[in-house]
Amino acid sequence: MTLFGRRLPIATALVTAIAIAAATLAPPDQLQGELQRLMYVHVPTAWVAYLSFAVTLAASVAWLWRRTPRFDRIAASSAEAGVFFTGLAIALGSVWGKPTWGVWWTWDPRVVTTAVMFFVYVGYLALRQATPDPLARARRSAVFGVVAFVQVPIVHMSVVWWRALHQPPTVLKPGAPTIDGRMLTALLISVLAFSLFYLVVLRARVRLAVRTEEVEAALAERDQEPAGNAVLAPQWEKKGLRADV
Amino acid sequence: MKRYRLLAVSGLGLAAVLVGLLVFGNLNQNLVYYMTPREALAQRSDYPDGRRFQLGGLVEKGSVQKTSDGLTFAVATTAQPGGRTVAVRFDGAPAQLFQAGIGVVLEGSWKGNAFVSDTMKVKHDENYRPPAQAGDRS
């Protein structure tokens, strides 16, 4: 069993190549021009962040139900990926915001709620590090993983609920997407490519977690003292008693 | 175990209350990112000259004029003509996408009947389309 597998990375590379071609061939936007192409990386990273946290939610529920260590590993691995993609979405949004909005950062509801989501899931990872006992760690992080997911709908709906600088959703909303067909195609292929990449990373991380556990178990076994080590031989000499009589 | 369950339930309850407050509570007054021209004019007395706030709206078509150190234009609440607008004096270089008809969020304060601003953010919408070809202008 290799860490990354064989077929999935090849499929991901293929879809990524198609996505790059589609993003290059799609027409520029009437208003934003070539800048609008940042959408083909910014939107998929945000989508994969949502997806990661949804997987963490599902795996956390599954762990609470079945108590299988596998679900805990999936939940933790997916949260790590989610934190990475949330950070990337904020960074890419910043790059897009500077030329279009005119600022790198603003206290816009969407931007702020996304940053809060980032830090809460960093807290999830910190909680895991702070709990050495595997069972307690799995239980606490499963509850955390379920409760923290409430932020995903808040982040998504923030642009609808509150007055924001960030534009409302284009695709994930009631009604038809308000985007040119070729742009939408390029966007959907990009989303597929990023989702496949997420699957590659998630699977590798889960396998790595399995191996880490194996190594830790082996080390614990090696370091274990031999049986009977705690029993001391009687030391008559120290007490001034002769041992030879 | 029992103590932990109590902790988890109370945590969930707290989260639910917070979410409920955010969604249904009337916090919008304090969380508002910008005021529309209509609101800014209605609350003119609450914002004396020099008190900074953010004003957001659409740049009225045909109102943009260059001055020696910036721009003047009018900001409307909606795209429909005839609504009340706020005259804006903007000092500095406009944002890259600035043009008549686009959404802007301006940071600044009242000065008499005009809104004087030094920071501009451009608000683009969620519609994406290729540049209009010659002949199919809509």
Automatic annotation (TrEMBL), chain A:
InterPro entries linked: Cyt_c_assembly, Cyt_c_biogenesis_CcmC, Cyt_c_biogenesis_CcsA/CcmC
Membrane topology: Multi-pass membrane protein
Annotated localization: Membrane
Key words of the record: Cytochrome c-type biogenesis, Membrane, Transmembrane, Transmembrane helix
GO MF term list: heme binding; heme transmembrane transporter activity
All copies of domain Cytochrome c assembly protein, residue ranges: 8-166
Signal peptide from the UniProt entry: none
Keyword Phosphoprotein applies: no
Transmembrane annotation, as ranges: 47-65, 77-96, 111-130, 142-162, 182-201
Major location category of this protein: membrane
Any matching Pfam family: Cytochrom_C_asm
Annotated Gene Ontology cellular component terms: plasma membrane
Biological process annotations from GO: cytochrome complex assembly
Keyword RNA-binding on entry: no
Family (UniProt): Belongs to the CcmC/CycZ/HelC family.
Protein name: Heme exporter protein C
Species name: Streptomyces zinciresistens K42
TrEMBL record, chain B:
GO cellular component: plasma membrane
One Pfam family from the record: CcmE
Subcellular location, principal: membrane
Gene3D superfamilies registered for this protein in UniProt: Nucleic acid-binding proteins (2.40.50.140)
Biological-process GO terms, alphabetical: cytochrome complex assembly; protein-heme linkage
Assigned keywords, A-Z: Cytochrome c-type biogenesis, Heme, Iron, Membrane, Metal-binding, Signal-anchor, Transmembrane, Transmembrane helix
Residues annotated to bind heme: H124, Y128
Protein name: CcmE/CycJ protein
Location(s) in or outside the cell: Membrane
GO molecular function (one): metal ion binding
Superkingdom classification of source: Bacteria
